[in-house]
């Protein structure tokens, strides 16, 4: 199997992914409560601009504007009959931008959670989850993505349903969970548990890791948790640009480009192969991350104290994998946020 994503993964020491989708689209005029996926058809120039911002900043790959592209999510906007159309359109716009980049840039088809809780805790069956993920995957495949990318997952059952659906679509894939409650996902998954889960899946992902969460420090602790399991699979780190704060009625992320550059280098040193940003991450952040990765040599894996010193305190005392409490310290030295 050969495609741009696999070529980049095999040939480069580290890959820079993209930043935020929602943050950038809100800056372009998207209103809270609107479905971003509708813009793939209604505002294609703005979606091209979203993708182009990542490419111009030096990203090796970017995710499509299809995070909420399942039937269950689009049903909230009376667009459940448009799954294939909207996902295909988002992928085609990405393919158009990537193919004009003048260098190899991969297009990853973003697949977010269904928004429903799976059995036995909730009502969503495995079969229906697979069906929804498969329908979305086929639309993304038709639009020309290089790889499918399920993200912000919290339940292992949903991760497994996506893996099965992607096998039906005959597409390579990557997957990330969001760790934000004492080092665990909302459904209690730890970094060690995810590292084991991906090894037990028949249709294993090319890369796995974490996205979103609570901030740069916490996600690096999670990445260290993945690496500690001895995995040989590529690790993904897509952390938020600092901590969200309400400013004048809007959510603002306090991470500066300088801080995100330090985060990117520390993510690489912690064991991540694919490094990007999530909420709040803008092209300026990505440019700083690109420069830092290109100019700073690879170093030793950082100690937790070094992460705190550089990026700020952890949001919880433990990463959730054991009873040992990680140090939680106030930020010292220069305040970059």
Automatic annotation (TrEMBL):
Any GO molecular function: zinc ion binding
Domain Hcy-binding, chain residue ranges per copy: 3-293
Annotated region described as Disordered, given as residue ranges: 310-337
Methyltransferase among keywords: yes
One Pfam family in the UniProt entry: S-methyl_trans
Cofactor binding notes: Binds 1 zinc ion per subunit.
Record-listed E.C. numbers: 2.1.1.5
Keyword line: Metal-binding, Methyltransferase, Transferase, Zinc
Names of the cofactor(s): Zn(2+)
Designated name of the protein: Betaine--homocysteine S-methyltransferase
Binding site for Zn(2+): 212, 278-279
GO process terms (BP): methionine biosynthetic process; methylation
Top-level lineage group: Bacteria
Chain's gene name: bmt
């Amino acid at each position: 199997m050969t495609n741009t994503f696999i070529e980049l993964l095999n040939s480069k020491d580290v890959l820079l992914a993209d930043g935020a989708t929602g943050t950038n689209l809100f800056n372009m005029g998207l209103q809270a409560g609107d479905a971003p996926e509708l813009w793939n058809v209604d505002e294609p120039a703005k979606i091209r601009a979203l993708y182009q911002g990542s490419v111009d900043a030096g990203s090796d790959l970017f995710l499509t504007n299809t995070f909420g592209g399942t039937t269950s999510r689009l049903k909230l906007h009376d667009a459940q009959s448009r799954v294939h159309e909207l996902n295909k359109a988002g992928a085609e716009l990405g393919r158009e931008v990537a193919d004009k980049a003048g260098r190899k840039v991969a297009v990853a088809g973003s697949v977010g959670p269904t928004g429903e809780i799976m059995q036995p805790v909730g009502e969503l069956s495995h079969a229906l989850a697979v069906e929804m993920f498969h329908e979305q995957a086929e639309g993304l495949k038709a639009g020309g993505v290089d790889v499918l990318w399920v993200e912000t997952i919290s339940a292992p059952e949903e991760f497994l349903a996506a893996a099965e659906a992607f096998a039906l679509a005959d597409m390579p894939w990557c997957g990330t969970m969001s760790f934000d409650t004492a080092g665990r996902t909302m459904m209690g998954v730890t970094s060690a548990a995810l590292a084991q889960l991906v090894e037990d899946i028949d249709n294993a992902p090319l890369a796995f890791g974490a996205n979103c969460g609570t901030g740069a420090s916490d996600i690096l602790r999670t990445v260290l948790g993945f690496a500690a399991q001895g995995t040989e699979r590529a690790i993904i780190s897509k952390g938020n640009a600092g901590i969200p704060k309400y400013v004048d009625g809007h959510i603002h992320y306090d991470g500066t480009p300088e801080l995100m550059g330090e985060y990117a280098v520390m993510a690489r040193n912690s064991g991540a192969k694919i490094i990007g940003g999530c909420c709040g991450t803008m092209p300026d952040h990505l440019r700083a991350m690109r420069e830092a990765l290109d100019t700073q040599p690879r170093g030793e894996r950082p100690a937790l104290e070094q992460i705190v010193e550089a990026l700020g305190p952890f949001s919880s005392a433990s990463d959730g994998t054991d009873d040992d409490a990680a140090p939680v310290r106030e930020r010292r030295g220069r305040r970059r946020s």
